[in-house]
Structure formats: structure tokens, C-alpha cells
Amino acid sequence: MTRTTYQGDTLSWSLRDQVLELALHRPPCNEIGSTTLSELERFVEALDAMDEARVLIIHSAEEAGFSAGADLRELYRRSREMGPEERVAHVRRFLERIHRVMNAIDGAPLTTIAAVHGVTFGGGFELALTCDLIIADKFTRFCFPELRLGLIPGFGGIPRLKRDVGNALVRDLLLTGRSINATRALAAGLVSQVAAEGQALRLARATATQIKKFDPTTRVEAKRFIKPIPREELEREIDIFCSLFTRPAVDAGLRQFVERTDPLPYLP
After folding, report:
1. What is the domain extent for residue 68?
2. Residue 38 belongs to some domain of the structure
3. Closest among 72, 65, 75, 207 to 131, alpha carbons compared
4. Are 65 and 131 in contact (CB under 8 A)?
5. Can you give the CATH number for the domain in which 60 is found?
6. Contact criterion met (CB below 8 Å) for 159 and 106
7. β-strand 19-24 against 11-16: which pairing, if any?
């Protein structure tokens, strides 16, 4: 029997009236570490069997935002326990697992909506980019802060962002590390709708109601036609990330991050 509800440590999901909602709820801001990855893997396994689902909405129950991205403290702690070769192998395994999850959501045969607010950084931004539509609270901020650590995004963000928007914005986000707001994201075509503060999920649900009116087979074929998964570029991204990971600059950047005492250290 397909499991249509689940309550985990970092996320939960429920299916009702053909709309599947995946809620992220790991404080302070849904950092994606080993536990979250395992639960996301459990989700995509269940998703594959949920034939009755027509729309997926991914959102956050945390006030700080949608997701701050990878759990850098866990990454740093585990990498310090390993030699260089073992460290790279560990990171590659993690990235390959998260890419399988992201690709499964990206190519799922239903319409997917990311309802985002607040911090939508790094891996959290990359998760939103797997979705067909992004609906953003007006106070959402999008950012790839990996440059500050001597890295590039590793969860598939660069190829998916290139697929969706112009190269000028891709270079701006990737090379400066600065964030953009929902208004600029809308103008660039990254975001499909901007909601009032705290209303992104409500607007996503209303959009899901509209989407369900149309023939599901037609929606699936249209999605396959207009949204190919850039698999070769995604594989290349993993290679580049791993080649950079053992550099002293990365170790120094991670150490500086974990030593910060700010409640939200990922903020600029």
C-alpha cells in the first residue's frame, strides 16, 4: 500500500485531493544533512508509487525560510575525521545521492511547485530549482553563497538555473555570492508568482487547484518537452565540486563558518 502520509525528523508529507505536500521542518532553517537526505530518499521512493498525486508542493514550516542549504557543520565535522581521498569519496557519494533525489523530483510525472519564503540559499535554492514553478513570498532571498567557501553549488543548481534564466543572472549569483529578492527573481523569470508576506503556500495551493483542472497526460507530455534534465552538466558539476573540495581555501572557509556564533551564520 502506498504511504500517503509520513512524519519524519526533518520533513513530512501528506496527500489530499490529488495534491501532495512536502513540508520541511528542521530548525533553524532546514539545513540538508544526512538525516534530511535519507528522508528525501524515502520521499522519492514513495512518490514513485503515488499514482493518484497530480501536484506536488514543497514548502517550509520554519520561520527563517525555505532552506539554508547543505548542513555545513556536519560536512566539516565528518570531513575532519577522514583523509583527503576518503573525504572526496564521502562527498561524492553524498552528492550522487542528493542528485538522484533532485533528478527524481525534477522529472516527476506531476506538476511541482516550490512555495518559498525567507532564506532560500545554496542547496535550498537548488531544491526549489527542481520544481516546475517557484512561488515566492515577497521577502524571499535567493543566493548561492558557496563562493565564500571556495566551492561551487553541488546539488545541481548551476545547470538547472542555466536552464531557466539568462546567463547574466547565473554569473551574477554564482560569481558574486550576493542574494536577489523576489521582485528581481520574478523579472528574471526565475519565479512565476510573488505572494504577500506569509502567503506563498496559500497561493501555491490555489495554483494547484487550477492545475488539477487539466488532463494529466497532457501536462506530463508538456513537462517532458519543455523541461529536459541536463544530466551531462549535472555530472560535470559533481566532478568540479569534488576537485575543489580538498583545497585549503575550502577547509578554511568551512572552519570559519562553523566557528561563527551567529544564530543564522549562513546570512551575509
Report:
1. 5-198+212-258
2. yes
3. 207
4. no
5. 3.90.226.10
6. no
7. antiparallel
Tally of residues, the chain: 268
Separation CA 66–CA 205 (nearest Å): 16
Confidence of residue 2 (pLDDT cuts 50, 70, 90): low
Q: Which residues fall within 8 angstroms of residue 167, CB to CB, at 6 or more apart?
A: none
The pLDDT score that the predictor gives to residue 1 is 41
Compute the mean pLDDT over every residue in the chain, rounded to the nearest whole number.
92
Tell me the C-alpha distance between 267 and 178, whole Å. 10
Angstrom CA distances, 120 to 7, 35, 180, stand at 23, 19, 10
Instruction: Please name the amino acid found at residue 52.
Output: E
Residue with cell string 533528478 = 103
Tell whether 76 is covered by a domain. Answer: yes
Structural domain contains residue 266: no
How far apart are alpha carbons 76 and 194 in whole angstroms? Answer: 35
- Angle at 54 (CA atoms; ends 48, 57), nearest 5 degrees: 85
pLDDT digits (tens, 9 = 90+) for 215-245: 989 999 999 999 999 999 999 999 999 999 9
Q: What is the DSSP code string of 68-102?
A: --B-HHHHHHHHHTS-HHHHHHHHHHHHHHHHHHH
And the C-alpha cell for 97? Answer: 545521492
Residue 205 lies in a domain: no
Residue 18 region, left (φ>0) first, then alpha (ψ -120 to 50), else beta?
Answer: left
Closest CA to 58 of 73, 72, 75, 39: 39
Q: How many domains does the chain have?
A: 1
Grid coordinates of 128: 526549489
